[in-house]
Design a protein that fits this description.
The protein is an alpha+beta fold. Helix content is about 45%, strand content about 30%.
Length: about 120
């Protein structure tokens, strides 16, 4: 279950929280500007950060924590989006290849027309 973590300075969305003494490790975290945004928007931003490798482990002191809450509305959306990332990548790659094939086919057709003139 993903979690929202609020500190004195930032709000994070992370995959997991590991407490070790006076430190807390936020696993695969990214900062969130507004926790009250639409859950779909928050989920898309997290998945985008994950794909762009902009999530990171963050270490904070336990004293700087203001709140910790399960991201109940966001977690299922993130998990679903991450599940479909490989399919989306295949689809995007296929679309790109088909455009290139169409372009090459168009060039070949134009070359054939020039030979007949």
């Amino acid at each position: 279950m993903f979690k929202f973590i609020e500190t004195h300075k930032s709000t994070y969305l992370c995959e997991n929280v590991i407490e070790a003494g006076s430190k807390v490790k936020l696993v695969a975290a990214t900062t969130i500007t507004d926790r009250n945004d639409d859950p779909g928007l928050i989920a898309r931003e997290y998945v985008k950060a994950k794909l762009m490798e902009k999530t990171r482990d963050v270490n904070v002191s336990i004293r700087s924590l203001e709140s910790q809450e399960d991201a109940e509305d966001v977690s299922p959306l993130i998990e679903l989006m991450l599940k479909y990332v490989p399919i989306a990548e295949k689809h995007a790659r296929a679309q790109m290849i088909m455009k290139e094939v169409a372009r090459l086919a168009n060039i070949e057709d134009e070359d054939e027309d020039e030979d007949y003139e």
